[in-house]
Design a protein that fits this description.
Elements lengths: L20 H13 L9 H10 L6 H9 L2 H6 L12 E6 L6 E6 L4 H12 L11 E4 L8 H8 L3 E4 L3
Parallel strand pairs: 3-4
Antiparallel strand pairs: 1-2
Helix pairs in contact: 2-3, 5-6
Length: about 160
Amino acid sequence: MSRSLYHASHKLSTPIIRIDPNEELNLICKLLFYQPTGYHANSRKLYKDLKKEGYRFPFKKVHNWLINQNEWQKYAPSPKDTPRTYKWALTIIDVASRFKYAVPLTSKNSSEVAKAFKKIYDNPNIPLTWPDLLQSDGGREFMGETSKLMQEHNVIIRVIVG
């Protein structure tokens, strides 16, 4: 047998079992987290309980372990601030082919809507050609630059009210 498996202070018949530190973290965190009183709402609380039990794992490893647990993900508090860059979407539905496409928009001004139309109809990967008729609601985003763009491509804009 290899001498590296035995510690010098032990008898030859007493093996030393080496545990992978990541596996040790996994086992101990599972024992603490999945007991009836063990739900930890955040990684700080789990880390604090691990320290109380005498374990010295790095906080980052404890945090990474916790965020990968399905149970924690289900009941985790929702993020307080979610940045929302896009608030609107320009949605196009081609009636003939039933092809649908949407482009996210940060504002509903006419120039941004016109750029979105160009992005859609000038993209070779999207199977659409400039339409003959564009039906829209009476929004101001279809006036100005959007209406000029549609005139350039001989598109009639029909406003649907109601």
